Amino acid sequence: MNDRKLGKTMASDGGVESLPNDASNPSAITRSSQCRWRAILTRARSNPRNSSRISASLDLERSAHPLRRQSTHLTKHHVTKMRSAAEFAHDIKHPLNLSIDINWTRTWVGNDPDGQILGRLMELTRKWLKPRYCKIFAQIAVRENPNGCANTHILVHCPPSILRDFKRQVLNVLDEACHGLNDRAVKFKRIGNGNSTLRATLGKLDYICKGTDPEVAKALGIRPTPQGQIYGKLYSISQDIQQKARRRYAEASRQLGTP
């Protein structure tokens, strides 16, 4: 039974009314509706019968999509790659100027155990931003699971002029993929309070890399905090700012004779 059918089954049993699935309507996600679904989620999770069904649904999802390797710490190589990507994005005038924090426990599914929802969000975000609003899709994401509370931190470039529409797009995608989320499931914050300097971006990046191995963190100047066990990739970097893209950009610059 998938999560969408799970919701319908629970509705028919009187456990909770079905969740909305109108991600195409920008007005569907309002503060009043978010508060309403927060109450629904709270009632659903407080019902032992629903809790068992949610667990069973997640178990079926795991069996259908075997979890990949397990990791507990970011390595020096991981952090160095993310720093280089962030610096490159800043150099090409696509700074990582917006942070998005996702608390999966405040969504209907409760977790993103092997990063499938995050992968879908990154793909749909890329298609929405590029090429209409950005020539380069610049994004870095780090997954965490401290004390079993799964969350994800994202740094992304978003032109300030479309910030409101972009937030709505992200919420719509997550609301559909998670079959519902409450008003505290996703937080948006402009890096540097709108002044996205490289220093501000790297400072935020160091914070979301706090799950680094303690010895490595000390060498990199990061304050480490255990972030639990993650299945699959601990972090993701969009292709447009990965090492291969940086090499192509450098080669094209040399051919044009630009510094």
Provide structural commentary.
The protein is α+β, with helices and mostly antiparallel strands. It has two domains: 3-64, no CATH class; 70-256, Replication Protein E1, Chain: A (3-Layer(aba) Sandwich), CATH 3.40.1310. It contains nine helices and seven strands. The chain has helices at residues 3-12, 31-46, 48-64, 76-91, 116-129, 163-177, 198-208, 214-220, 243-256, and strands at residues 70-71, 98-103, 139-144, 151-156, 186-190, 230-231, 235-237. The strands form two sheets. The chain has a five-stranded antiparallel beta sheet, covered by helices on one side. Strands 1-6 form a two-stranded antiparallel sheet. Strand 3 (139-144) and strand 4 form a beta hairpin. The model is unreliable at 1-31, 51-57 and 59-66 (pLDDT under 50).
Task: Put the structure in a nutshell.
With 259 residues, this protein is α+β, with helices and mostly antiparallel strands.
Q: What is the helix tally?
A: 9
Q: How does the overall form come out from the CA principal axes?
A: globular
* Total domain modules: 2
Text of the CATH class of the largest domain: Alpha Beta
The poorly predicted ranges are 1-31, 51-57, 59-66
Q: What is the terminal separation in angstroms?
A: 56 Å
The fraction of residues in strands falls at 5-15%
What's the layout of helices and strands?
Elements (H helix, E strand, L loop, with lengths): L2 H10 L18 H16 L1 H17 L5 E2 L4 H16 L6 E6 L12 H14 L9 E6 L6 E6 L6 H15 L8 E5 L7 H11 L5 H7 L9 E2 L3 E3 L5 H14 L3
Antiparallel strand pairs: 1-6, 2-4, 2-5, 3-4, 3-7
Helix pairs in contact: 4-7, 5-6
